[in-house]
Amino acid sequence: MLEVRDLNVYFGVIHALKGISLSVNEGEIVTLIGANGAGKTTSLRAISGLIKARSGDILLNGQSIINMSAKDRVKNGIVHVPEGRHVFTEMTVLENLELGAYLRRDKAGIAQDIKQVYKHFPILHERRKQAAGTLSGGEQQMLAIGRALMSKPKILFLDEPSMGLAPLLVQEIFSIIKTINEAGTTILLVEQNANMALQIANRAYVLENGSIRVSGSGQELLKSDAIKKAYLGG
Questions:
Q1: C-alpha–C-alpha distance, residues 38 and 176, integer Å
Q2: 25 and 69 Cβ atoms separated by less than 8 Å
Q3: For 2-6, 94-98, 148-152, 160-164, which range has the lowest pLDDT when averaged over its residues?
Q4: Which of 71, 76, 80, 90 is most buried per CB count within 10 Å?
Q5: Which fold has domain 28-37+70-231?
């Protein structure tokens, strides 16, 4: 579904991504793990078109999208939930969800998908008339994911969805991510909580200093002594 080939990204003279290659198959959850500064967020931003790669290629369903605008990547099914949620704080929950569908014209389908988001996140239905800025951190994360789902993604990028959340909420968010995946959405996940990410991932890549050092199934990496020592606190 998604294939990244030898992608290089620079920030000035800093070589931030050093020829990374990865793939995400339809229906999978694939996670990128690694220390702060390893290149995880930069990878997502480059693939979704928010920053420009110096070289390499990105293919979606066999078609190169390396020169495609970020907006057109959304039209083609790549939808990105950024680190830090970035909800529109002065707009209501419902208005945020409606904005997620800004490229769509199917009013009946939009209404149906809002109902589906409320099924995933019942608290958002309760809060639908509230300003998004009054929500808790966990509720804002749910809203950011719900807003992304309104774009009907073929592949959903999630950047640090558990950041700053209480442990019980982290469990809930990961459970919802798994449910969204089981309903048919492919997911590329960046997550500091490597243990939780590997538990739900089909496959994983470990980034270090802008390069992919290790890859394998989520279960393989969970059992790896080197990964346990470096990222799982064991």
A1: 26
A2: no
A3: 160-164
A4: 80
A5: Rossmann fold (3.40.50)
Helices (H), 84-232: 93-100, 107-120, 122-126, 137-149, 167-182, 194-200, 218-223, 225-231
Alpha carbons 9 and 42: distance in angstroms, whole number? 8
Q: Tokens 């039209």 correspond to what residue?
A: 75
- What CA–CA distance (Å, rounded) separates 50 from 177? 23
- In eight-state DSSP terms, residue 25 is -
Residue 214 pLDDT grade (very low, low, confident, very high; cuts 50, 70, 90) = very high
- Give the tokens for residue 161: 């969805």
The Cα–Cα gap between 195 and 33 comes to 10
- CA–CA distance, 59 with 5 (Å, rounded to integer): 8
**Which of 14, 75, 20, 21 shows the shortest CA–CA distance to 48?**
75
Q: Residue type for 187, please?
A: I
**Rounded distance, CA 160 to CA 32, Å?**
10
Q: Which residues contact 65 (CB under 8 A, 6 or more apart)?
A: 49, 58, 59, 72, 73, 76, 78
Helix axes 107-120, 167-182, angle to 10 degrees: 140
Residue-wise pLDDT tens digits, 29-77: 999 999 888 999 999 999 999 999 999 999 999 999 999 999 999 999 9
Q: Are 207 and 231 in contact (CB under 8 A)?
A: no
